[in-house]
Amino acid sequence: MNYEQLCQRLSRIYDAGEAKAIVRLVLDVRFGLSTADIYCGKVTQLSSNDQAELEKIMQRLEEAEPVQYVLGVAEFCGRQFHVAPGVLIPRPETAELCRFIVEDGGHDILDVGTGSGCIAITLSLDIADAKVTAWDVSDEALAIARSNAKALGAEVEFVHQDALDMPSSPEMWDVIVSNPPYICRKEAGEMENNVLKYEPDIALFVSDDDPLLFYRHIMNYAAKALRPKGKLYFEINPIYADSIVEQLLTLGFIDVTKVNDQFDKIRFIKAIKP
User: Fold this and answer.
1) 242-266: per-residue pLDDT in tens?
2) How far are the Cα atoms of 111, 158, 174, 258, 267 from residue 235, in angstroms, in the given order?
3) Taking the CB of residue 251, how many other CB atoms lie within 10 A of it?
4) How far apart are CA 115 and CA 93, in angstroms?
5) What is the Cβ-side half-sphere exposure of residue 111, based on CA atoms within 13 angstroms?
6) Which helix (DSSP H) or strand (DSSP E) does residue 194 occupy?
7) In this predicted model, which residue has the larger pLDDT, 6 or 184?
8) At 253, phi and psi to the nearest 5?
9) Is there a contact between 176 and 233 (Cβ–Cβ < 8 Å)?
10) What integer pLDDT is reported at residue 242 of this predicted model?
11) Please, what is the average pLDDT of the chain?
12) How confident is the model at residue 74 (pLDDT cuts 50, 70, 90)?
């Protein structure tokens, strides 16, 4: 089967450009074929074992399984992270958040709800002398995050901690960052099937009755646990940006700023403890 035929098989799920990008990623990551190799027809020259493996991959992709889970890796801030269905696939907008924090810097950093560890590991590697701690309630996520830290040479302390049951005697931090669950169940109908079917509900959804549940717990903790001039960063659901800002101001945070992503949509909030 040639490159064009592989792309055609995914065309019922993805648009033409995305189908081609997925096929090229598979051929590069799993079989070492460059774009030049692909256009020179080397896809048809794969060994019989490789052809059999490629067919298994294609069958999974045709079921709308995300290519990152199929391959077991996702690119994030120029590095490859291991991912599996127990953690969210790192998103480009989260990489924007990391770049934003790296520019500001900080020493004692806490990542709440670390998942694959992509935020914590990136900050550990990209901020000189950063001391990073990462929390998650999922043991599966923590195992994946620890393996990523080891593979990438990052020093991060991973701790099993529920964001809805914060420590009563907080440590003190310069930076707290979180990309918590923020999608209401009522929004599920607008989401892609490959996200709904394969990515972990626990990391995606929050109750329709309390969409700010995680934000409220984290900002209440941050109000006590951040040092003076410490910074709190959230990735947010744009629908609730104003409500989050209002609650932060009520808690006494200053310089509360809404930040747009590359598509000019409000995606992040930064607040400073006075």
Assistant:
1) 999 999 999 999 999 999 988 899 9
2) 12, 20, 18, 10, 6
3) 17
4) 15
5) 28
6) helix 193-198
7) 6
8) -65, 150
9) yes
10) 96
11) 94
12) very high
Integer-rounded Cα Rg, in Å, for the chain is 20
Give exposure, 127-157, as e/b (b: 16+ Cβ within 10 Å).
beebbbbbbbbbeebbebbeebbeebebebe
Q: What's the CA gap between 215 and 245, in Å, rounded?
A: 11
* pLDDT for 156: 98
Residue 67's SS3 state is helix
Residue with tokens 């934000």: 215
Six-digit token string for 240: 């609730």
C-alpha–C-alpha distance, residues 127 and 103, integer Å: 9
Residue of 55, 23, 18 whose CA lies nearest to 39: 23
Would the pTM of this model clear 0.85, i.e. be above it?
yes
The label of the residue with tokens 């959804």 reads: 205
Contact between 237 and 246 (Cβ < 8 Å): no
Structure tokens that stand for 69 in this block: 């889970």
Strand partners, 74: 81
